[in-house]
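Figure 2 data, in text form.
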Amino acid sequence: MHYSSLIYTKGFIMAFSINTNISAMTANLHSNINSMNTDRSIGALASGSRISSAAYDASGLGIANQLSAQVSGLGQSIMNSNDSIGMIQVADGALQEYGDILDQVRVLSLQASNGILNDDNRAIIQQEIDSLLSAADDIAKNTSYNGIKLLDGSGGSSANGTFTTQSGPDSGDTQSVTIGDAQTSSVLSGTIDVTTQAGAASSIDILDSALESIGGIRADLGAAQNQLISNIRNTSVAQINIAAAESQVRDIDFAAESANFSQANIRAQIGSFVQAQANATGANVTNLFR
């Protein structure tokens, strides 16, 4: 408040004025600033982040958010790679059983090629072979992962047996594996017919070629799995390093912020005391003119 008055002294009239609110206003200003600093420190200590608001560090927040997006993307790419490894293991396990069946069929073909067997013996062996090949074909047609057929050549994004994994955080960071068609109609280059000695000998060659094809598919799966495992290791290291960089930008130094809070808190208390004294002084001046 601003007070003015006239004083009569020895025949002269003297004017004077007293500004009683300047100190109170100044104390109030600094008190508000100290209170804001205290609130900011409390928020930072509670959240663990020094840039919980863009107003505190706009550029730092933008950088931290970009790093956070990279960390999340790397984490998802690791999950994608693990999912693809699971798919590869399902396919490889099924092909192992498939190969075991072809091995058994080859053994039966060798048995049928023996000259001491008669036609009835070979007919019985043929029935067993037909049953085994039907079981192998069922494996190729029915093996699936997440409802997607794996061994009939129809899986993958383009329905051609090629499965593409988003193995990195950015567009184009992919790895692909092609699982060939393992149906008996595709793997076997001819008919397995052991009802004759000559047919049994021919069947052995056909089965050798089929086993080589199955082995090639499994080799591709193994290479793809190893590549994905290597990618997971590299991606995990990158994720840790980027997360550490984000922490440097975003997270507070608890020791330093605790010191800031103590300093701001002391200043706020002193400011409240000074403001109270300034208000009391103004009240005393007001009482002089009553």
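Caption note: Residues 1-9, 12-18 have pLDDT under 50 and may be disordered.
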